[in-house]
Amino acid sequence: MGQPSDLREWIRLLEQEGELVRVAAEVDPDLEITEIVDRTVRAGGPALLFENPKGARHPLLINQFGTERRMCLAFGVSHLDEVAAKLEDVLEMQPPQGLAEKLRGLKKLKSIADSRPKTVSRGACQEVVLTGDDVDLDLLPIQRCWPGDPAPFVTLPAVITRDPHTGTRNVGMYRMQKLDRRSTYMHWQIHKDGRADYLATDGRIPVAVALGLDPVTAYSASAPLPKHIDELMLAGFLKGEPVEVVPGKTVDLEVPANAEIVLEGFIEKDEVGLEGPFGDHTGFYTPAEPFPIFRLTAITMRREAIYPSIVVGKPPQEDAWLGKATERIFLPAVQMTVPEIVDYDLPVAGAFHNCVIVSIRKAFPGHAHKVMHAIWGLGMLSLSKSVVVVDEHVDVHDYAQVFFYVGANVDPKRDVVLAEGPLDHLDHAPTLQFFGGKLGIDATAKGPLEGAREWPEEIEMSPEVKALVDERWAEYGIPAHGSGGVVQNGAGRRGLSRLTRR
Ligand SMILES: Cc1cc2nc3c(=O)[nH]c(=O)nc-3n(C[C@H](O)[C@H](O)[C@H](O)COP(=O)(O)O)c2cc1C
Ligand SMILES: [Mn+2]
Question: 317-328 pLDDT, tens per residue?
Answer without folding.
Answer: 999 999 999 999
